[in-house]
Amino acid sequence: MACYSFWERFFRTKPVEVYQEEARKNTLQRALGRWALVSMGIGAIIGGGIFTLTGVAAKWYAGPALTLSFGIAGFACFLAAMAYAEFSSILPVEGSAYAYSYATVGEGIAWLIGWNLILEYLMGAATVVVAWSGYFDNLLRLFGIEIPYWLVNDPFTAAQKAKEMGQTAPYLAINLPGFVISWIVTGLLLRGIKEVAFTNNAIVLIKVGVVLLVVVVGFFFVRPENRT
To answer: How much is the pTM?
Structure first.
């Protein structure tokens, strides 16, 4: 009987009518406008990976076929965006994928999806922070400032670098710039959603400008290459 109750609750759904009633009683204020939300979407799409791994993948692995990978990934993202748009029009409430899953497939599946989203955001934020840290390190090198390798890498990467240099692995290794940057972003989030939106808009303008600059300038360097 206990097992049956568990599975019954695991697949228990929350009716759409209940969500709609809760939405009418919702006291949260909508502080973001249309363009701020679009900017957040663009900022999430153009992440740190496009500036750090695209060139490596194109030069050493995929070559021109990298554009096919972007096309396939873009089509998959398009399908996901359409699914989110359909769900959000039916359930215009907070909760994102957790709420949509709770209303369709059950509470247990929604619980799993909610924790997977947290893990996704954690890994995504860590990836972006590492990319920012790398750029910050390169920027300091332009001014002749070099941070020790064990202060800009994780313990495993630092141990590998120490082995390559014939040194003993450091007792302490931490990505200090990444750690500081993550706390700066956290402090900005605690300040308020409007401050976050303003900062995100500025960063998105810079990122889109860099991408357009690379596309326009790189267009004049495209040359046909004959391979035998």
So the answer is: 0.71
